């Protein structure tokens, strides 16, 4: 039964839209590769001659890439007989775990719907045991009493059976260590990105000072204000042009706060990608924190007797 629950949960729905205006839904496992998808479509539709999955102009069918992970992170196309078929991927309640994540092994041991299904199944079993099997219907009071007894029994089982919760504690400890390591990287990168942002602002201040002393020197050292005024006007026009170009490109005003944020964000993500070789690092970190909070809540409430 447990294998059936896990197997059913791992199935996703691939809805393939046909040019004639209808669609077919294919049940695919989470680990299905691009070649598996092609073979599945060919088995369903014998008339299809050429089925392939592409990224741009490149055929990636034979690369054995995980299809679900590929769709989550990219935009592959399904081409059938030189026609691009549109499709939708429904994970069917499956959390989009990243295949390239270091946390995949720990997460797969504690699949949320999997254990929730076990909890519901066990609760239903305990509740039925407290109801009269000879009756077809039960009063609200009988159902309420059965629920309370089932909850008490389930809490007692969880309190006395520690193997499952020891596993949860072990995974939580490992997860906390990973989060600490991740946050250390984030702190280092944040410090460097902040330094680069401040460096840019200092350079702008130095540029403004150079411009100020240049105009001062022209006005009082060589020429007079009659010569310096047009030059200062041209410099102001150049700055206006730069600010306008910046607004058109970035969609925000040419301000120090925005300049700092742009420099910070660019440096931060460049360093993160360089240090971790992953473009999903911050998503993995946020997901790991949510997962840790959930496991912690399960341990607290699951081991508390009613």
UniProtKB/TrEMBL annotation:
<dbReference type="GO" id="GO:0051560">
    <property type="term" value="P:mitochondrial calcium ion homeostasis"/>
</dbReference>
<keyword id="KW-0106">Calcium</keyword>
<keyword id="KW-0109">Calcium transport</keyword>
<keyword id="KW-0472">Membrane</keyword>
<dbReference type="GO" id="GO:0015292">
    <property type="term" value="F:uniporter activity"/>
</dbReference>
<keyword id="KW-1133">Transmembrane helix</keyword>
<dbReference type="GO" id="GO:0036444">
    <property type="term" value="P:calcium import into the mitochondrion"/>
</dbReference>
<dbReference type="GO" id="GO:1990246">
    <property type="term" value="C:uniplex complex"/>
</dbReference>
<feature type="domain" description="Calcium uniporter protein C-terminal">
    <location>
        <begin position="138"/>
        <end position="275"/>
    </location>
</feature>
<dbReference type="Pfam" id="PF04678">
    <property type="entry name" value="MCU"/>
</dbReference>
<feature type="transmembrane region" description="Helical">
    <location>
        <begin position="231"/>
        <end position="248"/>
    </location>
</feature>
<keyword id="KW-0812">Transmembrane</keyword>
<keyword id="KW-0407">Ion channel</keyword>
<dbReference type="InterPro" id="IPR039055">
    <property type="entry name" value="MCU_fam"/>
</dbReference>
<protein>
    <recommendedName>
        <fullName>Calcium uniporter protein C-terminal domain-containing protein</fullName>
    </recommendedName>
</protein>
<keyword id="KW-0999">Mitochondrion inner membrane</keyword>
<dbReference type="GO" id="GO:0005262">
    <property type="term" value="F:calcium channel activity"/>
</dbReference>
<feature type="transmembrane region" description="Helical">
    <location>
        <begin position="204"/>
        <end position="225"/>
    </location>
</feature>
<keyword id="KW-0406">Ion transport</keyword>
<comment type="similarity">
    <text>Belongs to the MCU (TC 1.A.77) family.</text>
</comment>
<dbReference type="InterPro" id="IPR006769">
    <property type="entry name" value="MCU_C"/>
</dbReference>
<keyword id="KW-0107">Calcium channel</keyword>
<keyword id="KW-0813">Transport</keyword>
<keyword id="KW-0496">Mitochondrion</keyword>
């Amino acid at each position: 039964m447990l294998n059936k629950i896990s197997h059913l949960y791992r199935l996703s729905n691939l809805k393939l839209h046909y040019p004639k205006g209808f669609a077919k839904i294919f049940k695919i496992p989470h680990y299905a590769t691009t070649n598996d998808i092609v073979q599945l479509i060919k088995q369903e539709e014998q008339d299809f001659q050429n089925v392939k999955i592409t990224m741009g102009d490149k055929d990636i069918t034979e690369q054995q890439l995980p299809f679900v992970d590929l769709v989550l992170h990219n935009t592959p196309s399904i081409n059938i007989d030189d026609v691009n078929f549109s499709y939708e991927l429904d994970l069917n309640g499956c959390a989009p775990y990243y295949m390239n994540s270091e946390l995949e092994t720990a997460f797969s041991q504690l699949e949320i719907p999997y254990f929730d299904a076990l909890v519901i199944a066990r609760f239903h079993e305990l509740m039925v045991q407290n109801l009269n099997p000879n009756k077809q219907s039960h009063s609200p009071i009988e159902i309420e009493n059965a629920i309370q007894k089932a909850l008490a029994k389930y809490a007692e089982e969880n309190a006395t059976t520690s193997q499952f919760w020891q596993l949860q504690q072990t995974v939580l400890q490992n997860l906390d260590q990973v989060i600490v390591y991740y946050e250390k990287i984030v702190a280092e990168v944040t410090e460097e990105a902040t330094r680069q942002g401040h460096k840019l602002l200092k350079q702008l201040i130095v540029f403004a000072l150079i411009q100020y002393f240049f105009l001062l020197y022209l006005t009082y050292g060589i020429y007079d204000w009659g010569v310096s005024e047009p030059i200062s006007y041209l410099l102001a026009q150049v700055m206006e042009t730069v600010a306008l170009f910046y607004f058109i490109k970035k969609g925000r005003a040419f301000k120090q706060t925005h300049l700092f944020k742009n420099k910070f964000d660019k440096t931060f993500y460049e360093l993160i990608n360089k240090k971790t070789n992953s473009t999903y690092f911050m998503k993995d970190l946020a997901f790991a924190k949510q997962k840790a909070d959930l496991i912690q809540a399960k341990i607290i409430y699951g081991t508390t007797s009613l």
